[in-house]
């Protein structure tokens, strides 16, 4: 494979603008995987080559690789390199496009409670130090600005730490629909103070992270269940408050 194959744009194509440098690298490599330029089992170019291709720093490349790992597109084998993974055997039947109402988001939360409580248990049992570090970084981004993107990344990193790619496949497929406030403003609908709302959500994320950090599977499972159950109750409250009188 020629190293230029994964990123070479056509001369006429306008340059797309991304929210950050890492996103541009992620989109480029993801497109190469989707288009079959990079095939399952193939090794990605080295960090140095990707840096040169995109004109970015090593930190940006590592962040991009982390996103690709969390999405289940690649896996890194320490001391060997990063390799493209096989795509899921079949597409999931849940379509994010059909999740439109508060009732739909509540249904997804019920699914997540059963799925992610076990993912947290496994993550606390199996996570690596590097995965714990990445979770901590995502948590800091959540605490600094309540970013939905960082929230999604935090949950995807937990799924990745299970070592079971199907947890990652499901959450990646759902995308930002796994975060209720990405679809509905629960705090506003329930006439809640946004600062107090975010403080509670942030504290719940911290509890999950610290349980995983100390390798406490039962604590991680309980913290995740508390977080998702509280999210469900906050949304139910918002639904009641916003209902016509």
From TrEMBL:
Domain HTH gntR-type: 19-87
Keywords noted in UniProt: DNA-binding, Transcription, Transcription regulation
Source species, domain of life: Bacteria
Pfam family, one: FCD
Keyword NAD: no
SUPFAM superfamilies hit by this protein: GntR ligand-binding domain-like (SSF48008), Winged helix' DNA-binding domain (SSF46785)
SMART domains found in the cross-reference section: FCD, HTH_GNTR
Protein name listed in UniProt: DNA-binding FadR family transcriptional regulator
Keyword DNA-binding: yes
PANTHER family: TRANSCRIPTIONAL REGULATOR, GNTR FAMILY, UXU OPERON TRANSCRIPTIONAL REGULATOR
GO molecular function: DNA binding; DNA-binding transcription factor activity
Entries under Gene3D superfamilies matching the protein: GntR ligand-binding domain-like, Winged helix-like DNA-binding domain superfamily/Winged helix DNA-binding domain
PROSITE patterns: HTH_GNTR
